[in-house]
Specification:
17% strand; elongated; four-stranded antiparallel sheet; alpha+beta; 4 strands
């Protein structure tokens, strides 16, 4: 019994990802899902991190790929998301009903960002 040839492995991988894509039901997420699965397989360490996955799967557009891959991370309740931005640390807690930030629960991370943009625009006008 020999090792499977590269083409056999690639075909099985593609078939597996196609099955996953049919479950998520969003055709536009097929490539990011494929890249996420590929990144999981290519990462040499136990702890998988999205940023190195992005660099491996799309070296020419790592930042955009990083954002794209984040859609496939399983996030448990009470997880804390931390981001350093313009010298300030932003911390958001994942809750069963959304995302808690600065004492307010938002339906999505986009809602938090939109709120900050509107706040900034209001500040600029006054």
């Amino acid at each position: 019994m020999g090792l499977p040839r590269s083409n056999d492995s690639e075909a099985r991988f593609s078939s597996y990802v196609e099955g996953l894509t049919s479950v998520i039901g969003h055709a536009d997420r097929a490539k990011p899902l494929r890249d996420y699965c590929l990144g999981l397989m290519m990462m040499p360490c136990e702890r998988k991190s999205v940023e190195p996955m992005a660099a491996i799967t799309a070296p020419e557009r790592t930042a955009a790929q990083h954002q794209s891959l984040l859609h496939f991370l399983p996030v448990r309740g009470d997880a804390v998301l931390v981001r350093d931005y313009h010298g300030q640390r932003r911390t958001v807690t994942v809750a069963p009903d959304g995302f808690n930030w600065q004492g307010t629960t938002y339906a999505s991370l986009s809602a938090i960002a939109l709120g900050k943009i509107l706040e900034y625009l209001h500040h600029c006008r006054h």
